[in-house]
Amino acid sequence: MQEIRPSWKSIPYGYPLANQKIYVLGTDMRLCPFDVTGMIWIGGAGTADGYLNRSDLTDAAFVDHPVYGRLYQTGDLGIFRREGYVDILGRADFQVKINGFRIELEEIRSAAEESPLVARAEITVDETGGRKRLLGYLLPDKHEITETMPLSLITDAADTIEIPDEIAAGKFRSIMERLNLLALDVIESNLCRYLSAQTFPVSFTLPDLMRLSGVKPRYDKLMREWLILMTEHGRIRCADGVYTLETYKPPVPDGEIRQVIREAVEGTAMSVGYLENCILHLPELLSGDDHVLKYLFKDGSEQNANLFYRRSLLSGYINAVAAETMKAFLMQRRTPCSILELGAGIGGTTESVLKQIGSLNVERYVFTDISRYFTDSAMEKYRAYPFMEYRLFNINDDYRSSFKPESFDVILAANVLHDAISLPQTIKAAESMLRPGGILVLTELTANHPIAAVTIKLTEGFQDYDDFRVKDGKALLTPSQWCKLLKEYGFTEAMSLPDDGKNTMFDEHLILAKKEDISRYLDDAELCAVEKHISEKLPEYMIPRDWIQLAELPLNANGKVSTKKLPRPFAPEETERVIRKPETELQASLCEIWSRVLGIAEVSIDESFFHIGGDSVLMLKMLGEVRKQLGITVTYEQFLEQPTVQSLEQILQRIPVADKS
To answer: Which helix (H) or strand (E) holds 640?
Structure first.
């Protein structure tokens, strides 16, 4: 080729070399007309006789054409252009058969990429649900600039929220110091208990500790954080990954634990019961014989969780700042806004926001969580707000199976983003879901305190991360780390409130980030224009009905598109349930409990609790009902072995009479 034209989506084959010929032939081995897709064949003086000692390959790829002589089939589809060069459309072996039609995927891709709205495209076949359908992926060619406000215009609203006297006077700091000292003593005594069979001073590695302790493997990150905390506070020594405890520290008496906690939090709204139970039952929690959610949601009640997330001194203040900031943002927007709340849980922040904004410039507010326990509860709490929607959504899932790009003006995440397996990936997803100039509003714990390492960090989300935090050994980020990360992964502005440099008394912050003022995704009208463009070139059966827009195509090590990494559209499996009725009186009682907790009409005795809508919180509520109605206690680990009614009945029958209360 002599030149590369800006309008080209890909580099053409170009013109044949001297003494060579290129043909685009149809299935009848005749020349295809200009701009009609066919198979690319090569002929001329350089054409080989065949493959050495491979007659099968030779017969498949070489022919003696009656007009053009010896030809070699390249395996590529192409189009002969009027200018005399050939456009390559890709491999012919990307041909598929759907609903009786033989379809060339590369032909669809080429047609899509000829649209001025599309930079690149990829076409695959989705077989979710047992049926084949075409699925299209687009990299939009769009850079539409809008004008929005800087963050500084909305953060002034935070100054109107007064800092509680207890925080301003240092009372909260004093509380945390006492609780952190207790937590360090508890961590040290538990480490000594795990290593008590050794001779002190004792040296060990993290794998040694996990092997000797009986701690469940899912808590290996927490154990590492324990060791980092102990090293930072001078309680143990570390050299090249080997830790040394000098002397044995006996267990902290239960009475002392209760006394310190109650004296520390006296006069505050902090959850004494939750803190006490976590620390007093720490060995059972780490071994898997107990579960921390049992104390956070005792018997399915939100009382302890409310005290911890909603009514504590700091959470109440940060929630108020978040609500006031969101109100200021909504007042500045010219059109009604859409709000998405991730991992809303008990709705502590939701309640503060709704009280402050009312229906001010709100088009829709989507309340999401991974548990139906919380979405069902929210439906009752917020029924007075007609714009509320409720969805199950996990921040670690691909958002494109649930939401469109650039569909929200505000994304709110209250103490949930640290649960991300990959923070960079989750931040990029949030940025993609926001409209130009939209804001991400985070409330986050921003200090890795020892007391958190024996209480709230026992919950599942703090153990799942698999990103740069693994190297750091800490699940939580500082405000400055948050701001740096948000700017690194797509946001143009980021800041923390209260200011990180001026208010070191705060262990929880509001983190704000603003998306750039550029739209990079196609709206519904533009997607229709792309489909119309394709429909003018291809028959209806070759046009995908589902299009997923991407910021970039996932590539493999060879630089080619990895179809395995492309997101799949949401398509729940439509399988007919076969209900096995209860066969005993006990099974009937369990089915009735499950049906009530899960909100479904019928339960099959061989169905997994988690496959029919159950989750960790609903499981604890169900086991609480079993204990209340049948007088039998089943542990979390016992139930997880095989979570069906049939298996639960066998577990209940095996429990000794003395253990039934």
So the answer is: helix 636-641
Q: What is the DSSP letter of 467?
A: S
**Residue in the block written with tokens 């080209």:** 8
How far, in Å, are 177, 321, 604 from residue 173 at the CA level?
6, 20, 52
CA distance 443 to 177: 22
Share of the chain above pLDDT 90, in %: 44
pLDDT at 114 over 70: yes
Give the helix/strand (H/E) hosting 440: strand 434-445
* Distance, CA of 512 to chain centre: 20
Average pLDDT over residues 220-247: 95
Nearest of 418, 459, 451 to residue 219 by alpha carbon: 459
Is a pLDDT exceeding 50 seen at residue 502? no
The single-letter code of the amino acid at 160 is: T
Which residues contact residue 367 at a Cβ distance below 8 angstroms, ignoring those fewer than 6 apart? Answer: 341, 344, 347, 350, 375, 378, 382, 388, 389, 390, 391
Helix spans in 462-570 (H): 469-472, 479-488, 524-535
Question: 388-392 and 362-369 as β-strands: parallel, antiparallel, unpaired?
Answer: parallel
Nearest to 580 by CA among 535, 522, 645: 645
Cα torsion angle, 204, 207, 211, 214, sign: positive
Residues sharing a CB contact under 8 Å with residue 472, sequence separation 6 or more, in sequence order: none
Quick: pLDDT tens for 61-112: 899 999 999 999 888 878 888 877 787 776 665 667 776 677 878 888 889 9
In the predicted model, is pLDDT for residue 572 greater than 50?
no
In a 3-state reduction of DSSP, which class is residue 547?
strand
Query: Dihedral of CA 63/64/67/68: which sign?
Result: positive
Measured at the CA of 612, the angle between CA 631 and CA 294, to 5 degrees, comes to 40
Q: Can you give the pLDDT at residue 522?
A: 92
Give residue 273's pLDDT: 81
- What are the residues whose beta carbons fall under 8 Å from the beta carbon of 501, sequence distance 6 or more? none
Phi then psi for residue 467, to 5 deg, are: -130, -150
Q: Tell me the β-bridge partners of 145.
A: 518
Q: What is the DSSP string of 588-600?
A: HHHHHHHHHHHT-
**Helix 171-194 and helix 220-232, axial crossing angle in degrees, nearest 10:** 110
Q: What span, in angstroms and rounded, lies between the C-alpha atoms of 632 and 93?
A: 61
* Maximum CA extent, the chain: 99
pLDDT value at 309 more than 50:
yes
pLDDT at 190 exceeding the cut of 70: yes
CB 330 within 8 Å of CB 360:
yes
The closest of 597, 590, 586 to 621, measured between CA atoms, is 597
Residue 7 clears pLDDT 70, i.e. is over it = no
HEC secondary structure over 354-408: HHHHCCCCEEEEEEEECCHHHHHHHHHHCCCCCCEEEEECCCCCCHHHCCCCCCE
Single-letter amino acid code for the residue at 138: L
Residue 234 class from Cβ within 10 Å (0-12 exposed, 13-18 middle, 19+ buried)? exposed
Helix (H) or strand (E) holding 228: helix 220-232
CA distance 169 to 358: 33
Q: What is the mean pLDDT of the chain?
A: 85
